[in-house]
Amino acid sequence: MKKFNLLAEPEKQEIIITHIYDAPRELVWKTYTDPKLRPQWWGPENVETTVEKMDVRTGGEYRVTQHTPNGIEVTFHGVYHEILASERIVQTEEFEGMPGHVVLEIIIFEDFEGKTKVTDTSITPSVEDRDLIISTGMEEGVIESDKRFNKLLKELQKKS
Amino acid sequence: MKKFNLLAEPEKQEIIITHIYDAPRELVWKTYTDPKLRPQWWGPENVETTVEKMDVRTGGEYRVTQHTPNGIEVTFHGVYHEILASERIVQTEEFEGMPGHVVLEIIIFEDFEGKTKVTDTSITPSVEDRDLIISTGMEEGVIESDKRFNKLLKELQKKS
After folding, report:
1. Which of A104, A106, A128 to mutate to test the interface with B (most CBs of B within 10 A)?
2. What range defines the domain where residue B32 resides?
3. What pLDDT, on the 0 to 100 scale, is given for residue B6?
4. Count of domains forming chain A
């Protein structure tokens, strides 16, 4: 199985991204959900991330901004429908540059052959929304995040 | 235009329900979002509805239970991603009898030829989930609610 995969089948309203991380599930969960760690892996390296709010609990809200080197601000916000530690996140996500186009995101954390598999499914309001999100260069951003997340996991494992 | 319509196209992950109500938009909004009024119109008449939580604001949560005459409890819960008074609700919805199958629901309130049009779009995690929801007799429930909602609107308009 590949370490990273993005699946977006024609005419479907979903994007399915899978990651395989060589780290225990609890550490993957902590790295993913810790507001202090988020700026260390989310988005490309030359982008600065500010976590304005990230209240990781069922019913909590989040708002996170990426500041690009050319001064553009890219902000996402949403609510956590469900937080089940080390297992599942169900959240909404709205890119403020595309207001009203809310995505339902389901992120599953599983043990997988001694590693951890994270399956991130984004359900979009329409096929057009889905294709628009992909056309913004989403895959490149996710690949960059995946690399940085792996690097951060290694650093955290060395420390512990 | 019909007063009520349910659209679920083959192979799509969505259900689109439209209602036309002969009442001002603000009254339709109030009737829809008032926790005290919810038991008076939601679901069939022989079902008793208990609103355990209904915090109608962005980031708020809700949990509502229907008690059927034969003692079955049907509970729904979710979070409000966005509440824009008299205009839009974006929320998640999970039927606790089908845990994990979370729906993204977008409800738009618009003026329409002197009446109010409410468009309620449910986006499901899969086509299978969508079809399962429809197979539970959803349409009958929505038709019953629509009748009771219209009746309640008339009563509220007489009072005011």
Report:
1. A104
2. 4-159
3. 86
4. 1
